[in-house]
Design a protein that fits this description.
With 325 residues, the chain is of the alpha+beta class. The protein has four helices and 15 strands.
């Protein structure tokens, strides 16, 4: 079993019977080939997948097609040619011939019903109603979505991350546009040099510096922790006197997930729980405007677990009044 496969999921690399290797598999981002022990020697078959990662063909060493496969939308095998022993079919997932179902890691998938056998442990995302269904495969839309982990469709991850990132980009575009509008309304006026005025300006600058030193800068932080150990943290400074915005902190959450998921576990279940904590924190931020957060310290916490212990996503206010908009 390769838990660090480039495919992003734990994959079988060898099958043994009585201590003898019967099959080996080569993985890249997708399944490349299999080697089967036949009459004392290994026979290689290469996989040909379509755009949805369904195995459509098997090739021999000469490049000749030995087998073909056809499926309906939910993965029922509706056509086949060739007799090569092969367990990887729909979505390049492993088919259990004894059970008649697909092994999608966390759960077995029944392609005849379009449902999983077990209840999904992923909490789902409240603003994506389909993700709240605990048994449905790929939100009932297998033509466009897939669920190799058995926890949640890949679209749930992508949607949440793009919402967080898209919101931050939208905010940047909005405020940049406003600055440009102000500059256009008030074009620069040429100054006439005046020695006394320059001295007054320098004094005013010094006064402004003193005021800035006394005024608390809006600073927040999101961090991934386990116990008292800070796994990874991202500070966020306010761009102006209004403090850190909800969109700024949500952007930090997006980065925390992208970096943090590779630091804690390669287990899809843990990654799913981490994403749930990120989603709940993000939605909580939207409840604070317009009053904002003035209390210094941790103002929001979401916890999740893996086999080794408990993790949490902490949101902290370090200085100033923030999340007012």
């Amino acid at each position: 079993m390769d838990e660090l496969s480039p495919s992003g999921y734990a994959q079988v690399v060898e099958e043994l019977v009585g201590g003898q290797v019967q099959k080996t598999y080569t993985w890249g981002h997708m399944l490349i080939n299999q080697r089967r022990l036949v009459a004392g020697s290994y026979v290689v078959s290469y996989y040909g997948q379509d755009g949805s990662e369904n195995v459509r063909q098997l090739f021999d060493n000469s490049g000749a097609v030995t087998d073909t496969f056809a499926y309906d939308a939910f993965g029922i095998l509706i056509g086949r040619t060739g007799t090569t022993a092969n367990s990887y079919l729909y979505r390049s997932q492993q088919f259990d011939a004894d059970l008649g179902f697909y092994y999608n890691r966390a759960r077995y998938y029944d392609q005849t019903r379009g449902r999983f056998f077990n209840r999904d442990q992923f909490d789902g995302i409240s603003f994506v109603p389909q993700s709240l269904h605990k048994y449905l495969y790929a939100h009932g839309d297998p033509m466009n979505l897939l669920d190799p982990s058995g926890y949640s469709t890949l679209a749930d991850y992508d949607l949440l991350l793009w919402l967080l990132l898209g919101a931050s980009v939208a905010a940047t575009i909005y405020y940049t546009t406003k600055v440009v509008e102000v500059l256009r309304r008030f074009p620069p006026v040429p100054d006439v040099w005046d020695k006394d005025k320059d001295k007054d300006k320098e004094k005013d600058k010094e006064k402004d510096k003193d005021k800035d030193k006394k005024r608390p800068l809006g600073v927040m932080r999101v961090q991934l922790q386990t116990g008292n150990v800070n796994v990874f943290s991202i500070p966020v400074w306010a761009p102006d006197e209004r403090g850190v915005a909800v969109l700024h902190l949500r952007t930090a959450l997006h980065l925390l997930f992208l970096v943090g998921k590779g630091m804690i576990s390669s287990n899809p279940k843990v990654e799913s729980a981490f994403l749930g904590a990120i989603a709940r924190s993000s939605m909580a931020y939207g409840t604070f405007p317009p009053i904002g957060v003035s209390m210094i310290g941790n103002f929001w916490r979401e916890e999740f677990r893996d086999r080794k212990g408990k993790f949490r996503v902490d949101s902290e206010n370090l200085a100033g009044v923030n999340l007012r908009y």
